[in-house]
Amino acid sequence: MDMCVRGDNPVALSLSDEIEELEEAEDYSLDVDSDADDYVNDSDDEAGGINRDPRKSKYSLDKMKKIPSEITRIKAYVANEGTTQMKIQEVDERTFAEFLNCREEGIVIHDRDIEEMALSAAEGIGLENFKAGHSWIHLFKKRHNILSRKITKMIGTKTKAELKAIEESIVQFHNEMRPILATTPKNKVYNTDQSGFNLEMVSGRTLEFRGMKKVEAVSQRIQATTHSFTIQPIISVDGKLHSPLFVCFYEPAGAPKKFAEELSSFANLYCTWSKSGKLTSGHVKSWFEDVLLPLADAQSNQKSVLLVDKWGGWNQALSLEETVEKLDIHIIPPGATGRIQPLDVFFNRQFKQFYRILSDLIRRRYDGFILSTRKNLATLLSVIFHQFCAPRLVIFV
């Protein structure tokens, strides 16, 4: 972009601004012959001529280009709708705008897509011979702080109307809960949610030498990395993690006779099982009767508030007469749990990450401790749960 100097301060002008200033000058037009000749040949007459002193002249450098070839060049820029550099900048802006749009829509983007976007933008503005090569793409990503990142979650497509409906449901839910939370003691407002854990948790990344194409890691039991058990913690608004922790173990062949006896020593765990390691409506009914309702009774005679996500497994337990009498249950809107459910938003992530870190440490230091066995799983869960119940870790709840 050309620069026009006003006094001591350089001010960047667009081509159209430069042409406009030239045309606004007294007796000035873009006729190269007449204006250039006027500038070169006019006398130094104080009454009406041009004073050659650029500090006094009305045709000084801040008014016009005194060289005819410069005027011709600017006219060519205007006719071509900008300089090549300006067009390259516009290609950058259009490409980045399309990148943002794709990102908003959740579309997977690679370097080849950036190349196609840039070439399409260049064609749209008439920039010939533009090539979105590796160096241009590299600089484009560097300018806009763009990197290749691993996809951590795949989600279904949602229309804008569906997303808007979810946003409205979140606002409505917040409005409904504010007066309830304002009048209910913090230790009487609970949230619960299920979280699945692999029998053996292994980190997805490891340190390795640069340039290594094949990175392998060892697990104690490969099958244990593809099967899971489920926990269901309870937290309250006052920052407490409530005991016991409900745990559903993975028992594909059914629980052995020694199941209860083997796990009876873990007082802060309520242990049950299923062939899939996942909870059913029957498990949830047991959780209500044996874990939550006794906790609600112990606090006070006032009804407790329970926030849960929308899941069909709750229905059987929610119909219990005792549940209706002692609990005021509120369902978090579908599609909003990942954004407003307390356990989903924060605690479950911290708990699972700590479990994974401790599993890595055990594999490194105590390889004889098999993480995926029933009793060792319970030991690890019990220790971690006990730590997270500590008063100093209220900030994690």
From TrEMBL:
Keywords: DNA-binding. It is found in: Nucleus. It comes from the Eukaryota. Pfam families: DDE_1 (PF03184), HTH_Tnp_Tc5 (PF03221). Residues 79-150 form the HTH CENPB-type domain. Its main location: nucleus. Residues 24-56 are annotated as: Disordered. The keyword DNA-binding applies. PANTHER family: PROTEIN PDC2 (PTHR19303:SF73), TRANSPOSON (PTHR19303). This is HTH CENPB-type domain-containing protein. It comes from Ditylenchus dipsaci.
